[in-house]
């Protein structure tokens, strides 16, 4: 029997990992302060904490991406040295990221085989397939091996990411918000399978999550971080959601969303007619999309990512030229370019704000001033940025949107993901808004920030804004939208007032079934 076949025939068992007194500073900032986390072998452990609490820093230290300032890692009780991710892998510690890392044009089998450090120069595919089949027998995850990855659903891709880690013999998996790209059914399926493997003692999971529902349904233990310190945790069975949220934010009050007001007279505000667009590979991404958004209304676009939503947002915000179709605002033709956006008060919030809507190396204050940088009082003379009003305005926004930053002068790229998002949203929502176009505004945010941002969006709607909300989070659509439209393969496949539909019907349409 060859080595790979032998490896997969001996059943590998879950391993336990601990951090002892782990601290990490970035310059003067202590991101992690004396954290001792114990994840028992075969447990499903959740790591909770608000944005910027230190979760990513902790797991990056465990994975060898960062060297801790102090502290150590134990694997099955023995101290190990993890100078880099390769060393973490050698100790059986692997990580599954929010975003996919597979090669789209290769098959699942090819992706697995090339992921091995010891892939031979000439691959004996017959033998590899036999080994893969034998390996699949040992896991509950089933994925078609011979299809290119780009033809798999998001759920299948996520399963393949996990399979890849198991194939590489990682028996301690760190998952960073693993379900953010999945439909609710896919999320439950993937987490259920993982829970089965932990119960069987084959795997240990450490999952970063902001979703209490997932933590209570699938995790058995939890650790909560706040401002870099471990503030609590224990068995999930002994903790309520209130206990966990209190550990996360202390006595900070969570903003309640205002009621949905219906008194305003509705008027057609934004219309998309016969929109066609291509993606970056020049393949059809949008086909004959028609949408209407009225004043004082939120149109929620649901769908699994990659079904045309990004292209829709990009065409509406002038970042992609449509191949056909027209936009109207107040019944008049609309071109999404800066001048019209300003005069018609169209505001937008794109996905991945650090990449698409910010200049990473510039300061928080400068990034918050972008929208208004060529207008008084920020710039009394064109082209000259006046730092004092920029900082003053930034300080106001930082406090009302609870952006955690050491100062207004910190480069925005040093903020945690959630805080970059809050800074950009603060910038976009701070003026008078008539049309608001937002994509996944709460992606990766902690529950208190989610409540805050959703309240802000509802406020804008109640004040009469027409809101187009693209979201992969069905709970967000159910909570905010007046009308829901589902995008599937570049088309609007389903539309309904939210009151006349439900989670199952929308989920069904998201999965690509015609109803
Ligand atoms: N490379 C870095 N340089 C400077 N500061 C950093 C760096 N990485 C993280 N930080 C800071 O460390 C703190 C912890 O950030 P971290 O990303 O670990 O938080 P998190 O809990 O993962 O947050 P989120 O839920 O938003 O992802 C934050 O204040 C962040 O600004």
TrEMBL record:
Protein name, entry field: ABC transporter ATP-binding protein
Chain ranges of the ABC transporter domain: 17-252, 270-514
MF terms (GO), sorted A to Z: ATP binding
Pfam families in the cross-refs: ABC_tran
Highest taxon of source: Bacteria
Lineage: Bacteria, Pseudomonadati, Pseudomonadota, Alphaproteobacteria, Hyphomicrobiales
SUPFAM superfamilies in the cross-refs: P-loop containing nucleoside triphosphate hydrolases
Keywords assigned: ATP-binding, Nucleotide-binding
Family: Belongs to the ABC transporter superfamily.
Family annotation (InterPro entries): AAA+_ATPase, ABC_carbohydrate_import_ATPase, ABC_transporter-like_ATP-bd, ABC_transporter-like_CS, P-loop_NTPase
Coiled-coil stretches noted in the UniProt entry, renumbered to this chain: none
């Amino acid at each position: 029997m060859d080595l790979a076949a032998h490896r997969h025939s001996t059943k590998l068992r879950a391993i336990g990992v601990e951090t002892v007194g782990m601290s990490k500073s970035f310059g003067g900032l202590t991101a992690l302060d004396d954290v001792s986390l114990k994840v028992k072998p075969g447990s499903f452990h959740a790591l909770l904490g608000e944005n910027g609490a230190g979760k990513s820093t902790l797991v990056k230290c465990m994975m060898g991406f960062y060297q801790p300032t102090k502290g150590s890692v134990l694997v099955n009780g023995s101290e190990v040295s993890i100078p880099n991710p390769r060393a973490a892998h050698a100790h059986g510690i692997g990580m599954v990221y929010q975003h996919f890392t597979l090669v789209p044009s290769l098959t699942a089998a090819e992706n697995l085989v090339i992921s091995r450090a010891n892939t031979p120069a000439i691959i004996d595919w017959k033998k590899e397939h036999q080994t893969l089949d034998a390996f699949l027998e040992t896991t509950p995850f089933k994925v078609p091996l011979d299809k290119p990855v780009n033809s798999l659903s998001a759920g299948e891709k996520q399963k393949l990411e996990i399979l890849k880690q198991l194939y590489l013999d990682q028996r301690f998996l760190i998952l960073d918000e693993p379900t953010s790209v999945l439909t609710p059914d896919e999320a439950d399926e993937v987490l259920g399978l993982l829970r089965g493997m932990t119960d069987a003692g084959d795997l240990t999971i450490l999952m970063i999550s902001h979703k209490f529902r997932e933590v209570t349904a699938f995790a058995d233990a939890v650790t909560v971080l706040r401002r870099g310190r471990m503030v609590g945790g224990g068995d999930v069975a002994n903790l309520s959601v209130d206990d966990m949220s209190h550990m996360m934010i202390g006595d900070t009050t969570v903003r309640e969303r205002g009621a949905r007001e219906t008194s305003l007279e509705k008027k057609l505000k934004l219309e998309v007619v016969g929109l066609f667009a291509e993606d970056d590979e020049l393949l059809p991404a949008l086909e004959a999309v028609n949408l209407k958004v009225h004043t004082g209304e939120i149109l929620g676009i649901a769908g699994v990512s990659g079904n045309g939503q990004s292209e829709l947002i990009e065409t509406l915000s002038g970042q992609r030229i449509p191949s056909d179709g027209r936009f109207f605002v107040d019944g008049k033709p609309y071109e999404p370019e800066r001048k019209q956006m300003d005069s018609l008060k169209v505001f937008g919030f794109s996905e991945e704000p650090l990449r698409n809507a910010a200049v990473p190396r510039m300061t928080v204050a400068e990034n918050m001033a972008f929208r208004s940088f060529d207008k008084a009082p920020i710039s009394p003379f064109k082209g000259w940025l006046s730092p004092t009003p920029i900082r003053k305005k930034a300080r106001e926004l930082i406090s009302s949107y609870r952006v955690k930053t050491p100062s207004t002068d910190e480069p925005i790229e040093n903020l945690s993901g959630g805080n970059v998002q809050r800074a950009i949203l603060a910038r976009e929502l701070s003026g008078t808004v008539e049309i608001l176009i937002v994509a996944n505004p709460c992606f990766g945010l902690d529950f208190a920030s989610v409540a805050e941002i959703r309240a802000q969006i509802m406020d804008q709607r109640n004040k009469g804004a027409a809101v187009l909300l693209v979201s992969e989070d069905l709970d967000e659509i159910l909570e905010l939208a007046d009308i829901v439209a589902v995008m599937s393969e570049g088309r609007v496949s389903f539309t309904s007032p939210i009151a006349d539909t439900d989670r199952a019907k929308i989920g069904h349409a998201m999965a690509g079934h015609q109803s």
